Amino acid sequence: MTREKVWRSVSDSLRKDFGRMLDVRDVRRVRRVSGDAWIVTVVLAAASGDLHVADVSVDDAGTMTPLLTADHVIEAVRRAERLSVSSPDTSELADLGDVAQVH
């Protein structure tokens, strides 16, 4: 399979199962003991930016593993929420003004 065929195959599968919610962002070839495969990065396309859902593997026969389900999407959203909650709030530092600037 070529990179373009893998991209098209995974995109078509995602459209069938998830509509336009999920999209392919990257396809790269990897070499394994069992033969060549493709790693495909799948994202949740949102107006606020892409949210990584999974990296799936596609073999030369076109078999995709893991098969993505709604659980993968839900876990990606939860993972993003945990990261946003644990990130520091920079608005508290805004009160310092230009104190941190080097003159």
Could you list some keywords that capture this structure?
2 helices; single chain; 103 residues; four-stranded antiparallel β-sheet; 4 strands; alpha+beta
Précis, in short:
The chain is α+β, with helices and mostly antiparallel strands and 103 residues long. Helix content is 32%, strand content 35%.
Strand order in space, largest sheet: 1-2-3-4
> What class, by secondary structure content?
alpha+beta
Helix content: 25-40%
User: How much strand?
Assistant: 25-35%
Look at the structure and give the mean pLDDT. 85
Largest β-sheet summary: 4 strands, antiparallel
Instruction: State the low-pLDDT regions, or none.
Output: none
Structure summary, number of beta strands: 4
Shape: globular
CA radius of gyration is 19 Å
Terminal CA distance reads 58 Å
What do you see in this structure?
This protein is an alpha+beta fold and 103 residues long. It contains two helices and four strands; from the N terminus they run αββββα. It has a four-stranded antiparallel β-sheet. A hairpin with a 2-residue loop joins strand 2 and strand 3. The longest helix is centred in the last third of the chain and has 17 residues. The chain is globular. The mean pLDDT is 85.
